[in-house]
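Structure tokens please, single chain.
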Amino acid sequence: MAYLLLLHQKMSLKRKVNKLTLEQTSIGTKKDRITKRIESVQKAYARKQSKLQAQAKQMTSYTNSIMNQQMMYMQQAYQNVDANTLLLTEGNGNTLYNKEYAKLYSDLTEAQKQGMDSEAYKKAYEAMQEFQKSDKFKESYQQAQAQAMAYNNNVAFQKQMQQQMMSSFTTNVSDQVSIWLECQTQALEDEEQLALAPLNEEDTLIDIEQASNEAQLSYAQSRLESIESALESRAQEAPKFGA
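Here you go.
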């Protein structure tokens, strides 16, 4: 009678072990699916984060590009001058333009094309030297030097002011972009957590179910092994007829 009872328990436990093993496989499949869904959501938000960073970088790069263009325009607009330029340049309100000096300079330049050993160049050079020795030219040249220095100092000041303004603007834009990116990132992280919450909850429930099933399976297998051992002992103890 005890042997039959043990045999019945064995068959019952075998069915239970098979059922729990099948459930473990099913739980494992659910675990794989929820893990892939969580990874899919995380990858989607990682792509969104990358797009945000690229957008922030693009905004900063665009601002830097505009400022670099402005810097080039400024360099072209604020050109230094020298005394010679003021004496040779006509128009634009230049009161230091010297017509006679400009004519001599033009003649010397044209004569130079014939070679510095040419008679034309020598005559033009002598005429220029003679003119530059005059008190009138020296006075004009000193005035041109003073005006050029004042102009160049003003140009340097204007450049410095413009550079400071552009630097301040660039820094301000960079700060604003950083603040924008931080806010957008935080909002994206909050949205991701909200999207992941039900999935994480389901994942936790699956883990609990899996752990419970594993415990039941382990216990059932242990009981089955114990009963099989007991049955084997009973079989060995049973009398053998015809031996």
